[in-house]
Specification:
The protein is an alpha+beta fold. The chain has two domains: 3-127, no CATH class; 141-229, Immunoglobulins (Immunoglobulin-like). Helix content is 49%, strand content 18%. A hairpin with a 5-residue loop joins strand 4 (165-169) and strand 5 (175-179).
Length: 230
């Protein structure tokens, strides 16, 4: 089982347990604000964990992770202190209250701390991009869609900085340099969209095309992606 599937299982189990706890709180007639805050905290933690292992989710969350992690830290710390304070006040706790307090401590260690750590690494990545080795990193060059229709568009997503030469290798063995080596402005381009209609001399045949982004011609290793034209 890959790390993405493992994380999905972990987040799914966490969500089920969180839902059961929130339902229990509502049955005990806690204020709606408390239940709502817990929902926001649990959803944020799940998002942190999924974003840690998925670059697309990381991009979608972006800087929203900063206020969310501050809220989670405030909320979970406040709840933990409240549970300790209530335990000290009640000398004759029922077995259910003791079990609930123990469950809360286990919840913080097993499900809150990993999510907070994941959120912290997301914030670190925003402050120092590409300095933390996330699992399942995004390839240096991603082409979408993988299947091209006549008249469609091909979008290239690149990790910056990258090479300055963009080359297309056609199904019949030709190589077409779309952007020659030395175009420094291209080095910091993250997204490039190619319209098939504007490049009929390149995307004219059916089959598999290979696109590469490289430095110094082909003297260094290239980033490559492949697409199929119908």
């Amino acid at each position: 089982m890959g790390i993405w599937n493992s994380t999905l299982v972990y987040v799914g189990a966490r969500t089920l347990l969180a839902g059961a706890m929130i339902a229990l709180l509502l049955r005990r007639r806690v204020p709606a604000v408390y239940a709502g805050g817990q929902v926001v905290s649990d959803l944020s933690c799940g998002a942190f964990l999924l974003a840690y292992v998925n670059p697309d989710i990381r991009d979608d969350i972006g800087w929203l992770v900063a206020p969310l992690i501050l809220f989670v830290l405030y909320w979970e710390a406040t709840r933990l202190l409240d549970r300790r304070a209530s335990g000290e006040r009640e000398a004759d706790e029922s077995w259910f209250d003791i079990l609930l307090r123990l469950y809360g401590s286990v919840w913080v260690i097993a499900f809150v701390l990993p999510a907070v750590l994941a959120g912290g690494f997301l914030v670190f990545d925003l402050l120092a991009p590409r300095q933390w080795p996330f699992p399942n990193p995004r390839p240096g060059l991603v082409c979408a869609p993988r299947r091209l229709d006549p008249g469609g568009e091909l979008t290239l997503r690149m990790t910056v900085p990258h090479g300055t030469q963009l080359t297309v290798f056609t199904p019949n063995g030709r190589s077409v340099v779309l952007i020659p080596y030395g175009m420094k402005a291209f080095r910091d381009v993250e997204t490039l969209t190619l319209a098939m209609d504007t490049l009929p001399h390149v995307f004219s045949d059916s089959g598999v095309y290979a696109l590469t982004v490289s430095s110094e011609g082909e003297l260094t290793a290239s980033e490559m992606c492949r697409v199929r034209r119908r």
